[in-house]
């Protein structure tokens, strides 16, 4: 198949395949369901809860009639993506879309989540590994498979924490800026393979990950105050951009970051 013959629309994702990292909660889970509802086969990774992953697989296959599979992945060991993709190849015969979404939290970000004067190399390096390194390896493996079918779309989820000061977010914010830069480089080099690469940058989204922040209520109040829409973002607010970036409507859009933040970054 020649790359120029490769066309996708949101109404024709049926029978195509999405692979997303971190698909059991929050934004990732919302994306999994959004694509499944469009008739797209879905593969996703999970960190630890096989039961939650299996419940999602069963629910999607029962309600949407698509193939769904889940694979365990340690995002702090990005090279293990290669093993996961081998399992993926046993289950699916094509890959059209890859979304790098998984993040780390808890002890792994100690030294990376906090005020500037408390930042430590180990925590910062862990965030870089899970954000940038994982995107690179996941996207490289995806591109190899997309090239075989004439093209595809790769997305990295990002956040406006690299644009707007957010307390304790320096480690994450700087690494989101880094992954957006990597997206632009990937787009420049993968375009000849008809593979488009973009980022979706969300403002503070009301997920379990945000609720784990010690200053969650302060962040929530500030977001509601700053947004012209007077509300927090929901995980489903980001799914439309992901569907758009995988459709022919965005066929000349690559190397860009789409910001979805309820207008908060302008205030």
TrEMBL record:
Molecular function in Gene Ontology: oxidoreductase activity
Keywords for this protein: Oxidoreductase
Keyword Oxidoreductase appears in the UniProt entry: yes
InterPro entries to which the protein is assigned, alphabetical: NAD(P)-bd_dom_sf, SDR_fam
Pfam families: adh_short_C2 (PF13561)
Coiled coil (UniProt feature): none
Keyword Transcription: no
Domain of life: Bacteria
NCBIfam families cross-referenced by the UniProt entry: PRK08416.1 (NF006267)
Entry similarity comment: Belongs to the short-chain dehydrogenases/reductases (SDR) family.
Listed name of the protein: Enoyl-ACP reductase
Native organism: Candidatus Sulfurimonas baltica
């Amino acid at each position: 198949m020649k790359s120029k013959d490769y066309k996708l629309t949101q109404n024709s994702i049926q029978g195509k395949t999405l692979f997303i990292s971190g698909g059991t909660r929050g934004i990732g889970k919302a994306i999994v369901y959004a694509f499944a509802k469009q008739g797209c086969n879905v593969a996703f990774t999970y960190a630890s809860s096989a039961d939650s992953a299996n419940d999602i697989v069963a629910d999607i296959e029962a309600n949407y009639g698509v193939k769904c599979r889940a694979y365990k992945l340690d995002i702090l060991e990005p090279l293990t993506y290669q093993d996961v993709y081998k399992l993926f190849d046993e289950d699916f015969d094509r890959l059209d879309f890859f979304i790098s979404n998984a993040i780390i939290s808890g002890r792994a970000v100690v030294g990376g989540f906090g005020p500037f004067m408390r930042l430590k190399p180990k925590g910062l390096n862990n965030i870089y590994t899970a954000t940038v390194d994982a995107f690179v390896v996941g996207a490289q493996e995806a591109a190899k498979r997309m090239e075989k079918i004439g093209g595809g779309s790769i997305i990295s989820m990002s956040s406006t924490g690299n644009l707007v000061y957010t307390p304790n977010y320096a480690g994450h914010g700087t690494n989101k800026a880094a992954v957006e830069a990597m997206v632009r480089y990937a787009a420049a080099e993968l375009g000849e393979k008809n593979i488009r690469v973009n980022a979706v940058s969300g403002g503070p989204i009301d997920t379990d990950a945000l609720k784990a922040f010690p200053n969650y209520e302060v962040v929530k109040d500030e977001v509601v105050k700053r947004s012209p829409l007077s509300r927090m973002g929901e995980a489903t607010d980001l799914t439309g951009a992901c569907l758009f970036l995988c459709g022919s409507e965005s066929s000349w859009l690559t190397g860009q970051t789409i910001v979805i933040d309820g207008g908060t970054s302008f205030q």
